[in-house]
């Protein structure tokens, strides 16, 4: 089950990667016409509508992205099947269709069906599409129907299963929707405290990849909160001073807190190992500050020093609590880094975003002080503080743009995994190389980490995840090439 959720989390990264361009377009549009929502400038409206084309149709992106990501071989046929499922379910459960099926006026249809085109249904459609693809892509039909054999039959099977799913949701969805709304309202009713609780659990779930499920409740329209959509939306559905409260608190942490924590880890490293830890920590800190991608840094100490990660989660909750309590709001489309911070200035729901700078500096000082104290006081094994007999020769190969060095990273990882004969499956997400192996006992973490790897996790008996960083795609390509050559 854990493996399924982790693969789903990776699949969601494909459609989420489309959102930064929406942020850029809408940021430009709001900068041109910050008060008119595009009403005062055709150029502003052009950019805002271009961005909202993605934001408003995020659920469709999820249906296609999850369909492809959850398929066995990332085939586009599964994405098409996900779209087929989405179209059938949302059409059958639209307000008009439900009113017709129940022979009642549209105004009397349960409000839940007015929110059927949401990210939850998009994800469900993608799962249905990928399941049908994986199960029926090799189907062989009689000669008379041979045209529909193989991948061509996937869409038909998907359509049939989607009708069944729509029939179940016809009765179940109102109850599920009401429960989600109640949960969302219970968090909203606690105000800034709820924002802090959410952010705390958001960080705690990072190791499992299940934080995406929690995010969908608050950032998207699953429970009626839709913090991202309303913050950037062109329809004015947000509430000034409220919208953005589930995003704002991440900026001080990702732009200032974690980089300061990285500095504390560097200063706490043993003198003879500081140079070795420097490359890893610097690259990870820059990634966190500029893009908001924190996994390379978090995985650098998450398992080496679990108490430090718990402190990080608590401080993230505290940041969100403070930001939600103060009159400050900022939002993102991808993550809470410098790029999204600057772009959010002109968004309609932005409120005193400059206040995040002193708040961020304060949290930077807090992170540095607490991290360094805890590391030294409790002798936590952060990068550069490993015991001498566990020394790891860190290299800067995982964070450069030199193709030859990507090859050396892949070679080192492959050697640490016991060779290509021990690797049965290769995949990657935005920062991790996700692998399946035959024999875990052949995996040598010291060898793998010598490539400059910031973290290694083993979520299952045959699963190995290697945190490479944002250059993971290049390493994955080289890794797959080497495996093919050696087989």
UniProtKB/TrEMBL annotation:
The active site is at 429 (phosphocysteine intermediate). Pfam families: PTS_EIIB, PTS_EIIC. Its main location: membrane. The keyword Cell membrane applies. One of its GO terms (biological process) is N-acetylglucosamine transport. It is a multi-pass membrane protein. The chain crosses the membrane at residues 12-32, 44-68, 80-104, 116-133, 153-173, 244-264, 276-293, 299-318, 330-349, 355-375. Coiled coil: none annotated. Residues 407-487 form the PTS EIIB type-1 domain. Keywords: Cell membrane, Kinase, Membrane, Phosphotransferase system, Sugar transport, Transferase, Transmembrane, Transmembrane helix, Transport. Residues 1-387 form the PTS EIIC type-1 domain. InterPro entries: Glu_permease_IIB, PTrfase_EIIB_Cys, PTS_EIIC, PTS_EIIC_1, PTS_Glucose_EIICBA, PTS_IIB_1, PTS_IIBC_nag. One of its GO terms (cellular component) is plasma membrane. PROSITE patterns: PTS_EIIB_TYPE_1, PTS_EIIB_TYPE_1_CYS, PTS_EIIC_TYPE_1. GO terms for molecular function: kinase activity; N-acetylglucosamine transmembrane transporter activity; protein-N(PI)-phosphohistidine-sugar phosphotransferase activity; protein-phosphocysteine-sugar phosphotransferase activity. The keyword Transmembrane helix applies. NCBIfam families: EIIB_glc, PTS-II-BC-nag. This is PTS glucose transporter subunit IIBC. It comes from Romboutsia weinsteinii.
